[in-house]
Amino acid sequence: MSGAQSGPVGIVGLGLIGGSLAKALQAAGVPVVATDPASNEEARAAGLSVVDDVAGLALHRPEIVVLAAPLRAMRAVAGSSPRRWRASRAGTRP
Question: In this predicted structure, what is the pLDDT of residue 75?
Answer without folding.
Answer: 77
